[in-house]
Amino acid sequence: MAGVAYKGSTIADSNKSGHVSYVERYISGYDSEGRPQYDTANHTTGAKITGTVNSTSTVYVNGQPVASVSSPTQEQWVADPYPSPKNSGGSIISISPGTSGSGSGQVSSGSSTVFVAGKAVSSIGKNVNTHLGTTTTITSGSSNVFVN
């Protein structure tokens, strides 16, 4: 049996491959008068997502509202690895959607036998769908209240 998840339970880090796109400008050569000639290259990098479970349930475990299926998560993401030029002397000229952000995902699985307000109670190891479309799990919760 796993410990019940509640408001503040952490979720496992998740990675969204190719979430950040960026354009690099670099010197590709020199003309006959020695002036630099420039070119651009498109690159992508991932996003590392971290977060915690939120809950507004009126049922409490260890002084915190219990989490259930559809409880929201508060998430942050950062570009990982951070965008950097691939060519000598290159520079980043645009990044989309940026190098960090936040959003709300939700708990997507819970107990098959324990419910609060008609929703399955969630626990450590249950799934979360992040705001960037990845799936991860709940990694912390109660150490003394358990569900199947």
Explained architecture:
It is a single chain. The protein has 148 residues and is mostly beta strands. The protein contains no helices and 13 strands. The protein has strands at 2-3, 10-30, 36-53, 60-61, 64-65, 72-80, 91-96, 100-107, 115-116, 119-120, 127-129, 135-137, 146-147. A 7-stranded antiparallel beta sheet has the order 7-2-3-6-8-11-12, with no helix packed on it. Strands 1-13 form a two-stranded antiparallel sheet. Strand 2 (10-30) and strand 3 form a beta hairpin. The chain is rod-shaped. 28% of the residues are buried.
User: What is the spatial order of strands in the main beta sheet?
Assistant: 7-2-3-6-8-11-12
How many strands?
13
Order of helices and strands: EEEEEEEEEEEEE
- Give the helix proportion (percent range): under 10%
Would you identify the regions where 5 or more consecutive residues have pLDDT less than 50? none
Give the radius of gyration: 22 Å
**What structural category arises from helix and sheet content?**
mainly beta
Please give the alpha-carbon distance between the first and last residues. Answer: 5 Å
Question: How many individual helices?
Answer: 0
Overall 3D shape:
rod-shaped
> What is the makeup of the main sheet?
7 strands, antiparallel
Overall mean confidence score, pLDDT: 97
β-strand amount: over 45%
